[in-house]
């Protein structure tokens, strides 16, 4: 018990210190966010826009899909440009051309090197000099820059409308025709894009970095990595090496000799409990998991195909009804829904077992209500997404019922409230089974940790309510990453590790002491890097150098525990040999093995590839980011949710025997398809973009001329092979769950016979 006290003390100290760091520097995000001026005027006093105009543009951007249509400050989709980098470069080139005509009587491209160098010097001085007067809350710009802005705005107004001259460009960017029909709202959108570019090119303090820490790379105004960027990148690499070395040293020299594994029970202990009504009701949850999973995979295939045909799906002009922005929104949202549903189902399956094999009163009713609430949120949010992107929904309702515009939190605020309410209901259902068990005598440390992780999942999704429709985007990004990083990559990780430990302990395969010790130690390691590591997403989102320093330092530590996951995979693999009855849960275990592998590769290797500030400076918003996202989100949480689904299916359908052919196809084709998708297409495209970004600038790496070149088109077509393999694996696991839920004929008879023989 003393060992538990030390581990609990370490965990509580880690949580206290790391949340203090996250909160303190979160306050700095509020204080140091780039100013949105009350007025933007020319030197002659002509009013160009206002704070309300800029924020109106932000809401217009949200209504067309926001981060699902290109990106802003590097966060969002990858097919269309990063609008910040694109606007900045176009405005700079427009200014140079105007200056060349005024000063030399020729276009900029016709000048000699000396003349161009002179104009670039003047350009850099004008753009990097901060014209914002905090006392008056006014931004003053030159007449020439105002004209450059107008020229850039004219291009954007035509692009987001239905100008025939830009139809080919819209197709290259996978934009639907007449993306934003209202000319007035297109003007507002231009104001917002201008402001994001102004913050990216203007020095926060004279002689120092811009508001976005010199991001994006733009040689015309010497936007390049700061000295602090390079220093903290080196620090993060050194800390990673030191952390890995320290972990190996501790593993080899400090850990006590492993206790002897308990003898495996002759019969699966989980089958000794009679299924409760609430557990029997979980079948519909499993069906929802695979239904949404299949839908997500299909939407992913369509979205990927739009990167080569833009507005068509093998010749069909699908974008009239299902544009890229919508399919990508549904692709991401359905992923979050089905993965979360898989986790919820696992928890609801465990609750009666924890409660001594019986349901608390009205537990089944709660399970049923929660399910239909989930269905209502899914249907409502998807319908809202469609109506918003089709520009059918009134602008004043978009944020609440349509599309928030923020990647991974795209659903309208009303549906977000519904989702949070559902998660809180799940927490209540879990606690109704857990609290009575906590009151019983005996070692309850593992159960206490499981309870804490359930509470964190239930409550921390509420971080998404700390921003609104017109909240400053730097502040919004801070809270958004509380959900995407802290809630998903942090607390879900702890819940998963603790739930698996609890299941294996209940099966009699590992001792309670070993399961508890491992879970507490893992939680401390995950949280130490994971909580402050949230800041590694915010290097260039209008934050200051200290945020970069904290993010770089702690995100390196996030990777450290992932290096031992190969051993965890081996341990999980060995479990299937512990007893003959373990054969019946072999395939769920195989999915848990895949989780450990992809945690190491997807979250660890591919995650650290984009973590150091100097790396992310050049590759934020490129397909290198998508490589990590696919490998980590599906490879870790997707396989984990499917493993939970198969495990729950196995126990709520006692006669089930997994179809070997289907499961082999599902497991190997899902893994093989993911490998093909990433390493034959997405990562090569990202690496080629990386070279372009480092040599020319981010605007070029995301530009139409670069992305439509033959090699990149071919690589995006190559992805089709990996997608097809993955889809076959997805359909196989879906069909296994469907026929498992409704067994008929010979399958059921064979299941009974096989169980009887064991």
TrEMBL record:
<feature type="transmembrane region" description="Helical">
    <location>
        <begin position="517"/>
        <end position="535"/>
    </location>
</feature>
<keyword id="KW-0472">Membrane</keyword>
<dbReference type="InterPro" id="IPR054309">
    <property type="entry name" value="NorB_cytochrome_c-like"/>
</dbReference>
<keyword id="KW-0812">Transmembrane</keyword>
<feature type="transmembrane region" description="Helical">
    <location>
        <begin position="446"/>
        <end position="467"/>
    </location>
</feature>
<dbReference type="Pfam" id="PF00115">
    <property type="entry name" value="COX1"/>
</dbReference>
<dbReference type="InterPro" id="IPR000883">
    <property type="entry name" value="Cyt_C_Oxase_1"/>
</dbReference>
<feature type="transmembrane region" description="Helical">
    <location>
        <begin position="547"/>
        <end position="567"/>
    </location>
</feature>
<dbReference type="Pfam" id="PF22085">
    <property type="entry name" value="NorB_cytochrome_c-like"/>
</dbReference>
<feature type="transmembrane region" description="Helical">
    <location>
        <begin position="335"/>
        <end position="357"/>
    </location>
</feature>
<feature type="domain" description="Nitric oxide reductase subunit B cytochrome c-like">
    <location>
        <begin position="37"/>
        <end position="217"/>
    </location>
</feature>
<feature type="transmembrane region" description="Helical">
    <location>
        <begin position="479"/>
        <end position="505"/>
    </location>
</feature>
<feature type="transmembrane region" description="Helical">
    <location>
        <begin position="413"/>
        <end position="434"/>
    </location>
</feature>
<feature type="transmembrane region" description="Helical">
    <location>
        <begin position="673"/>
        <end position="701"/>
    </location>
</feature>
<protein>
    <submittedName>
        <fullName>Nitric-oxide reductase large subunit</fullName>
    </submittedName>
</protein>
<feature type="transmembrane region" description="Helical">
    <location>
        <begin position="285"/>
        <end position="308"/>
    </location>
</feature>
<dbReference type="InterPro" id="IPR036927">
    <property type="entry name" value="Cyt_c_oxase-like_su1_sf"/>
</dbReference>
<feature type="transmembrane region" description="Helical">
    <location>
        <begin position="721"/>
        <end position="742"/>
    </location>
</feature>
<feature type="transmembrane region" description="Helical">
    <location>
        <begin position="230"/>
        <end position="254"/>
    </location>
</feature>
<feature type="transmembrane region" description="Helical">
    <location>
        <begin position="587"/>
        <end position="610"/>
    </location>
</feature>
<feature type="transmembrane region" description="Helical">
    <location>
        <begin position="630"/>
        <end position="652"/>
    </location>
</feature>
<feature type="transmembrane region" description="Helical">
    <location>
        <begin position="369"/>
        <end position="393"/>
    </location>
</feature>
<keyword id="KW-1133">Transmembrane helix</keyword>
């Amino acid at each position: 018990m003393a060992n538990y006290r030390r581990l609990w003390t370490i965990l509580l100290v880690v949580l206290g210190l790391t949340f203090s760091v996250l909160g303190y520097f979160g306050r700095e995000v509020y204080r140091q966010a780039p100013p949105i001026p009350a007025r933007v005027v020319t030197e002659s006093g002509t009013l160009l826009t206002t704070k309300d105009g800029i924020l109106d543009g932000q809401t217009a951007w949200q209504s067309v899909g926001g981060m699902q249509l290109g990106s802003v400050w590097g966060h969002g989709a990858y097919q269309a440009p990063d609008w910040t980098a694109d606007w900045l470069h176009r405005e700079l080139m427009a200014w140079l051309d105007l200056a060349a005509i005024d000063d030399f009587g020729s276009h900029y491209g016709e000048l000699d090197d000396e003349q161009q160098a002179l104009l670039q010097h003047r350009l850099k001085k004008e753009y990097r000099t901060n014209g914002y007067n905090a006392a008056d809350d006014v931004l003053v710009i030159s007449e020439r820059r105002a004209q450059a802005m107008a020229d850039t705005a004219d291009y954007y107004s035509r692009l987001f409308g239905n100008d025939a001259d830009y139809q080919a460009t819209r197709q290259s960017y996978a934009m639907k025709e007449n993306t934003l029909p209202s000319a007035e709202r297109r003007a507002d959108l231009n104001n917002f894009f201008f402001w994001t570019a102004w913050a990216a090119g203007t020095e926060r303090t004279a002689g120092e970095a811009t508001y976005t820490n010199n991001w994006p790379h733009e040689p015309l105004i010497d936007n390049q990595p700061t000295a602090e960027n390079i220093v903290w990148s080196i620090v993060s690499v050194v800390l990673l090496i030191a952390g890995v070395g320290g972990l190996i040293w501790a593993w080899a020299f400090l850990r006590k000799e492993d206790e002897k594994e308990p003898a495996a029970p002759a019969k699966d202990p989980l089958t000794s409990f009679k299924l409760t009504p609430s557990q029997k009701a979980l079948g519909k949850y499993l069906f929802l998991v695979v239904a949404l999973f299949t839908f997500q995979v299909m939407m992913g295939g369509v979205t990927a195909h739009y990167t080569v045909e833009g507005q068509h799906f093998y010749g069909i002009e699908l974008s009239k009804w299902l544009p890229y922005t919508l399919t990508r929104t549904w692709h991401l949202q359905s992923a979050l829904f089905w993965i979360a549903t898989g986790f919820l189902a696992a928890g609801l399956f465990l609750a009666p077992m924890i409660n001594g094999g019986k349901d608390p009163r009205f537990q089944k009713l709660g399970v049923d209500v929660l399910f239909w609430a989930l269905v209502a949120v899914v249907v409502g949010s998807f319908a809202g997404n469609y109506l918003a992107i089709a520009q059918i929904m009134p602008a004043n309702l978009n944020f609440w019922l349509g599309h928030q515009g923020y990647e991974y939190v795209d659903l309208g605020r009303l549906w977000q409230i519904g989702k949070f309410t559902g998660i809180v209901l799940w927490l209540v259902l879990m606690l109704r089974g857990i609290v009575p068990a906590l009151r019983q005598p005996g070692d309850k440390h593992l159960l206490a940790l499981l309870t804490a992780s359930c509470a964190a999942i239930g409550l921390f999704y509420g971080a998404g309510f700390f921003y609104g429709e017109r909240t400053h985007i730097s502040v919004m990004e801070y809270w958004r990453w509380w959900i995407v990083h802290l809630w998903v990559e942090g607390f879900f990780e702890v819940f998963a590790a603790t739930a698996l430990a609890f299941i294996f302990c209940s099966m009699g395969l590992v001792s309670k002491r070993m399961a508890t010790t491992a879970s507490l130690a893992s939680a401390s390691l995950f949280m130490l890097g994971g909580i402050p590591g949230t800041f590694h997403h915010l290097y260039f989102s209008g934050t200051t150098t200290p945020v970069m320093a904290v993010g770089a330092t702690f995100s390196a530590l996030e990777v450290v525990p992932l290096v031992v996951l190969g051993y965890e995979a081996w341990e999980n693999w060995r479990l299937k040999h512990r007893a003959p009855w373990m054969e019946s849960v072999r395939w769920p275990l195989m999915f848990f093995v895949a989780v450990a592998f992809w945690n190491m590769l997807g979250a660890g290797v591919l995650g650290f590839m984009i973590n150091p500030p100097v790396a992310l400076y050049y590759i934020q918003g490129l397909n290198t980011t998508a490589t990590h996202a696919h490998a980590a989100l599906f490879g870790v949480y997707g396989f984990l949710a499917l493993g939970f689904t198969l495990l729950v299916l196995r126990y709520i359908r006692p006669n089930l025997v997994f179809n070997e052919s289907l499961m082999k196809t599902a497991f190997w084709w899902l893994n093989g398809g993911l490998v093909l998708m990433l390493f034959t297409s997405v990562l090569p495209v990202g690496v080629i973009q990386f070279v372009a970004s480092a040599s020319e600038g981010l605007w070029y790496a995301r530009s139409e001329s670069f992305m439509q070149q033959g090699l990149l088109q071919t690589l995006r077509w190559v992805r089709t092979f990996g997608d097809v393999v993955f889809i076959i694996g997805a359909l196989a696991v879906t069909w296994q769950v469907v026929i498992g839920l409704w067994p008929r004929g010979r399958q059921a008879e064979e299941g009974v016979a096989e169980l009887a023989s064991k």
